[in-house]
Specification:
22 helices; magnesium; alpha+beta; 6-stranded mixed β-sheet; 63 strands
Length: 1295
């Protein structure tokens, strides 16, 4: 039983109100009931109405006076009490027939309102209707360092962060207006706050330094070798930035400026990397890949600031366009699609380039294309040209709909309407079935990374992780998450994966899942590691640092410590929110009507949300709206824009309120305004729409929603229009269920005072489709995750079991307690079938449906032929984070709302519905993230348990390097062994080059090291593998090889351009072997001195040895190289290089798997001590240079993959002696030299007449019936030029 009072107990004010509700109104202007109360002397809109049958103010007064009314029925109202329905969420109590009412809380000191009692629906607390768990620290993620807390999206326009990169002591971020960096020493310092000198969005961020404004930054790369950071930009430029800009600027607040910059591409620079040899590689649109050699950049970097233009010009002219080099007769070996990213494989000195569906593999040293293959690992032989785009789906729909309308023009209006709607639904289905190309997009590569063991990992848009070896062979694939992979990061033996869902996962080198958590509420777009953290960047611009041992015991300690300090960083704020809902029935409202509805109660609200239904409802409009929605092209309508503008004028939009965003779905419209003094705390507005009309595709019924962040808490507002008609209760319940489950929010395209815009709402169809077989944690509905959810609109629930006349009588007598018993929505909520666990203030206003237009007062109810029964169709229902009536606002229950006002404007007559409004007072508890970061830093620095765990990370397995000094002669190879002495843990190593220098004969002890880009190797040195893992109590062999090499830019028509000034000085490089544990923050370094002795010195040393027919060289311990000499009957030899397809050179030395130092020699039948060339049909298939007359000596040489080559020199018939020399154990290579008749020591090189432009010259020597050939360079000695150092070029003769 609800409260009942007899009419005789009515107050005088109620008698005046009765006269206004009579069928024949008095001859004066009629106002709403609330206006009549004010006219009779009752002030303020906060007071509840008094009704003869529902005297609620007396009840609340009694309760506030610490007593309860003597009426027995008053026991149904409990302050701080549980409900009487056991299934009611979130309260428990005895089950009975009484109503489920409660008063939210007693008014606190300073509050000028009395909270209204509420009705609570049953069925909450489980599944998607469970209140989200909140705590001072997120329970589902490890505690993290919030270097830059999540900024409001609206504050980041033009300054969004898009990528990050780490140096040893800094974190750099590329933004849309330049770059910025944080020093790790300042990571725990407080932010500047709202009154600081930083711009909005960075108030809570750790102190940082920002650059001068540039074009948007698209990619970043740290060059620790030269303490530079390289950035690629949207305008096609590449810029360098010093890691120590403070040394150049006296004032830290002054934006620092770029160093070297040049125009690298016509389009945006998608990726920049440094190869193993210090060259900068960059990529852009159209399949363009360019190389900028370190030599050219080093020269430009050395120029003064006033020579900046000249420096840029020098670099621009030095660029090597790889696409042009692999294009022959207009046919290119690589696709013309956009090169999305580059990856430096420093283990094998290669570079990977990822395009949409293909990869290209390049040699970083020779800059040659090695292989092109697709995502399936299959070699690509042809480049497919892009096909013509299909006719846009939107245009096709317009044509179909228009043709349908014309064809059916002769039929009646209903038939034409039906055909239009059917056509729109068919267009929606047709677009959905056209998604066959989505399977191809699902395979698109989004990210690549080089793992600690030297394997390559790529991530696809369908969540697939693919492992590759260094040669482009696909090994295996995994899928641990259904969402798209956006980025990778490695640390030791761990691989971190960032997903578009905001998740981060950790896998080991075998692909096994170690851990995972929700890192951000937006996509993780970049990650980088440094200082013991893995830093992640989300699309909203927030940066968080995760300990490399998280999740683990460290997290529990930090979480416990931070929870104890909760009150130091917790803050409480409050805001008032006004919700207005009105079914306008395709009409328009006057200014007076809008003032009565919204303007009269908006003076103290901070946020105002307005929802309209039936803004526009024509069949053609609905059909076209559905067609546009299917392709995400709904921009709203002119009628919707009229309503937004009109309401904005009513609210004095420009001076007091600011429009945040809106969304229209056919006849449904929602819009939101924020008071300007609250604007700094409100943002991140997202929109959503879910159609529930015909086929769940038409927007005549459905819901539109807005989601905002208020004081870092999420609130969702949903305007609904559910199924009509008295008997369609189940359909209405189903509509709500569909909206709640499938509503998925996306960024608003009209967040900045744009028209009532549509945002792509394909999300309402993908919400359930894309989450098949995903765990429950990942598929939580957006509405279920919000801190506060408000549903409002025309729900269309009617009064049942009552006639029209009975309802009119109850309304005229204001017996709303009896009418509430007949309310369908109240009955369904009590049964837990709809709006589970949600709340509504007790209705104390007359039913809002259905009225005759422009008929004031309660006498305006529908009296026509249908005589629709009055009903409370228009409602406002909500939930917050409370789990019990005793819940108080805290970080565990951060949003607590109470209702100040809930009524209808009965004096507005422009529609058949009356507008309703509901005002909330919302208390919000949130975190001061700057203070919490300080507490986080204090715990890291002072807590003994934390320090002990972090010290354990400093452990590095003991390793031993076989030698710290290596001497190489031309083409020599030395095998360096690294041994892991630890028996429990793997060691991870990487070899860098600290620098190189030229050895001066007069100053042997002085070295002036010159670093290449990113600690790259000099071009004369090959180190392979340069990185990898070493198992416990095992060793790995590293091949350190000298290679003669000329870069492409040093050749013109195949002729070396610096032959007249060849550098014969010895060179020295210092290799640094960095060793870490599988998950350690410390690094142990081993230095190895590598010296190259030029071959001319070796010739002079060996000149006094003679008369040996052949010489064999013994291999030194730790050496993997041997050479042999071979004598030909005709005393003519050739120096030939034999190359295998797709490789840089194959040798007759065969290497066993996993052993880079062992070789096997193939012997010729005639000579067992020399290397043999394989022949076809008894004839040699290698190309050689023929010598000029009088020249009888030459060199022959064969190369193998990644290994050294040997030379064989042959003597003429006139000289029967050969020289041999054995080297001692300290040497790593040996050579044999043969003399000509005149003891010539010079070299000659001959060129093929038919080949004047190729990089590697080819000889025309072929065997009969043999069509195979090898690209080689062969040098021959000229007997007529035995005493000079000049090189002669002679034509090739064909055999």
């Amino acid at each position: 039983m609800e409260i009942n009072h007899h009419p005789s107990e009515e107050h005088d004010d109620d008698k005046d109100a009765l006269s206004a509700m009579s069928a024949i109104p008095p001859p004066r202007k009629i106002h709403s009931y609330s206006h009549q109360l004010r006219a009779s002397g009752q002030k303020g809109h906060h007071r509840q109405r008094q009704h003869s049958l529902d005297d609620i103010p007396k009840i609340t007064e009694a309760l506030s006076g610490c007593g309860i009314s003597g009426d027995s029925s008053d026991d149904e109202f409990y302050p701080y009490a549980t409900t009487t329905n056991s299934s009611s969420f979130p309260f428990t109590g005895d089950t009975g027939d009484s109503d489920d009412y409660l008063i939210t809380h007693q008014p606190e000191i300073g509050e000028d309102f009395q909270p209204l009692p509420e009705f609570v629906g049953s069925g909450g607390g489980v599944g998607m209707f469970k209140v989200p768990t909140r705590s001072p620290l997120h329970s589902a993620r490890p505690p993290c360092l919030e270097l830059r807390p999540h900024p409001l999206r609206e504050t980041q326009v033009g300054r969004f962060l898009r990528n990050i990169a780490c140096t040893g002591t800094q974190l750099w971020a590329g933004q849309e207006s330049g770059v910025r960096f944080w020093n790790f020493d300042d990571a725990f310092e407080p932010g500047c706050g709202l009154g600081g000198h930083v711009r909005r969005g960075d108030e809570d961020a750790a102190p940082f330094h920002e650059s001068a404004s540039t074009a948007p930054t698209t990619c970043l790369m740290a060059d620790n070798g030269n303490r530079l950071v390289w950035s690629g930009h949207k305008d096609g430029k590449i810029r360098s930035w010093s890691m120590d800009p403070s040394s150049e600027n006296d004032d830290d607040d002054t934006p620092f400026k770029e160093g070297l910059s040049w125009q690298a591409h016509k389009g945006p620079v998608n990726s920049v990397i440094m190869s193993s040899y210090g060259d900068l590689w960059s990529c852009s649109e159209g399949g363009v890949i360019k190389i900028w050699t370190w030599e050219s950049m080093e020269k430009s970097l050395s120029l003064r600031l006033e020579e900046k233009h000249m420096a840029a010009l020098l670099v621009e002219r030095s660029g090597i366009d790889l696409r042009a080099q692999v294009t022959v007769n207009g046919s290119c070996s690589i696709s013309s699609s956009e090169v999305k990213s580059l990856l430096a494989d420093n283990v094998r000195s290669r570079v990977w380039a990822a395009q949409l569906q293909t990869f290209s593999l390049w040699d970083a040293r020779t800059k040659e294309l090695l292989q092109v293959f697709n995502t399936e690992g299959l070699t690509e032989n042809k480049v497919e040209m892009p096909s013509e785009k299909d006719q846009p789906a939107e245009d096709e729909m317009k044509v179909k709909i228009a043709s349908t309308s014309k064809k059916e023009k002769s039929h009646g209006f209903l038939q034409r309407s039906r055909n239009a709607i059917m056509g729109a639904a068919d267009a929606v289905r047709r677009v959905a079935t056209r998604g066959g190309g989505a399977s191809e997009d699902a395979k698109r590569t989004e990210a690549m990374v080089l793992a600690g063991d030297g394997m390559i990992w790529t991530g696809c848009t369908n969540g697939l992780l693919i492992q590759w070896d260094g040669n482009g062979n696909r090994l295996q694939d995994f899928r641990h998450h259904q969402c798209a992979v956006l980025c990778f990061c490695t640390f030791g033996e761990r691989i971190y994966i960032g997903y578009v869902s905001g998740h981060i996962q950790i896998i080991d080198l075998e692909g096994n899942l170690i851990a995972g958590w929700v890192a951000h509420n937006n996509a993780v777009i970049k990650m980088a590691s440094a200082d013991g953290y893995i830093f992640s960047l989300a699309t909203h611009g927030g940066i968080r640092g995760w300990h490399v041992i998280s999740p683990g015991p460290l997290d529990g300690i930090i979480r416990s410590e931070l929870s104890e300090k909760e009150r130091t960083y917790a803050q409480t704020d409050s805001v008032r929110i006004l919700i207005g809902s009105w079914n306008v029935g395709q009409g328009k409202a006057s200014h007076d009507a809008l003032m009565s509805w919204l303007g009269s109660v908006a003076s103290d609200v901070g946020i105002l949300v307005v929802g309209l239904q039936e803004v526009e409802m024509g069949a053609g409009f609905l059909a076209m709206s559905a067609a546009k929605e299917s392709v995400g092209g709904n921009e709203g309508s002119s009628i919707g824009q009229y309503w937004i503008d009109t309401i904005g004028k009513t609210l004095d939009e420009k001076a007091v309120f600011e429009r945040m965003g809106s969304r229209q779905l056919a006849g449904l419209l929602i819009s939101l305004w924020v008071r300007k003094n609250l604007r700094t705390h409100v943002g991140d507005i997202d929109v959503a729409a879910v159609p529930c009309g015909f086929g769940r595709a038409i927007g005549n019924k459905g819901g539109v929603g807005l989601r905002i962040r208020v004081f870092d808490r999420i609130m969702c507002f949903i305007n609904c229009h559910l199924a009509a008609h008295l008997e369609a209760v189940n359909r209405r319940n189903a509509d709500f269920d569909h909206i709640y489950k499938t509503m998925s929010f996306s960024r608003s395209s009209n967040a900045h005072n744009a028209p009532a815009a549509g945002v792509t709402t394909g999300s309402h169809t993908t919400k359930s489709a894309n989450n098949v077989n995903v765990n429950t944690e990942e598929t939580k509905q957006d509405l279920a995750e919000a801190d506060m959810v408000v549903f409002f609109g025309d729900f269309n629930y009617r009064l049942f079991g009552i006639s029209y006349d009975e309802a009119r009588d109850f309304v005229s007598q204001r017996s709303f307690d009896w009418l509430r018993e007949k309310d369908q929505l109240r009955a369904e909520m009590k049964a837990g079938k709809v709006f589970q666990g949600m709340r509504e203030a007790i209705i104390t206003f007359p039913p809002t449906y259905k009225f005759e237009r422009h008929r004031p007062g309660l006498g305006g109810y529908d009296s026509g032929e249908k005589k629709r029964i009055p009903a409370w169709c228009d409602r406002v229902i909500y939930r917050d984070t409370r789990t019990s009536p005793e819940s108080e606002c805290s970080l565990d229950c951060p949003v607590v709302a109470s209702i100040m006002l809930y009524d209808a404007c009965m004096d507005v007559t422009e529609s058949d519905h009356k507008p309703v409004r509901c005002k909330f007072h919302v208390k919000i508890e949130h975190v001061d993230r700057s203070v919490r970061r300080q507490e986080f830093g204090r715990i890291i620095k002072t807590n003994e348990k934390v320090r002990a765990l972090l010290n354990d990370l400093r452990y590095v397995p003991e390793t031993v390097v076989s030698s710290n000094s290596v001497v190489l002669q031309n083409q020599d190879t030395f095998v360096l062994r690294i041994t892991n002495k630890c028996v429990k843990q793997n060691a991870v190593f990487r070899i860098l080059c600290e620098g190189q220098s030229t050895v001066r004969e007069d100053e042997d002890n002085t070295m002036e090291l010159q670093s290449l880009g990113s600690f790259g190797f000099p071009r004369w040195l090959e180190v392979m593998p340069a990185a990898g893992t070493i198992k416990p109590d095992s060793c790995v062999e590293i091949s350190v090889h000298h290679e003669e090499f000329h870069t492409l830019e040093e050749f013109v028509d195949g002729i070396p351009q610096n032959w007249w000034c060849e550098d014969t000085r010895d060179k020295e490089a210092i290799l640094v072997v960095n060793v870490q544990g599988s998950c350690s923050t410390e690094t142990v370094c081993h230095r190895v001195h590598v010296r190259h002795c030029f071959s001319a010195k070796a010739l002079r040393i060996e000149a006094n040895q003679s008369n040996s027919k052949s010489s064999s060289l013994k291999k030194n311990e730790g050496d993997s190289k041997s050479k042999s000499s071979k004598k030909n009957d005709e005393d003519s030899g050739s120096k030939s290089h034999k190359k295998s397809d797709g490789d840089s050179g194959s040798k007759s030395h065969k290497k066993s798997d996993g052993d880079s130092g062992s070789k096997s020699h193939k012997k010729n039948d005639k000579d067992s001590g020399s290397k043999s060339h394989k022949k076809n049909d008894g004839e040699s298939s290698s190309k050689s240079h023929k010598k000029s007359e009088g020249d009888s000596s030459s060199k022959s040489e064969k190369k193998s993959d990644g290994d050294s080559s040997s030379k064989s020199h042959k003597k003429s018939d006139k000289d029967s002696g050969s020289k041999s020399q054995k080297k001692n154990d300290g040497d790593s290579s040996c050579k044999s030299h043969k003399k000509s008749d005149e003891e010539s020591s010079s070299k000659s090189q001959k060129k093929n007449d038919g080949d004047s432009s190729s990089y590697k010259s080819q000889s025309g020597k072929k065997s009969e019936g043999d069509s195979s050939s090898y690209k080689s360079q062969s040098g021959k000695k000229n007997s007529s030029n035995s005493s000079t150092g000049e090189e002669s070029r002679n034509g090739h003769d064909k055999r």
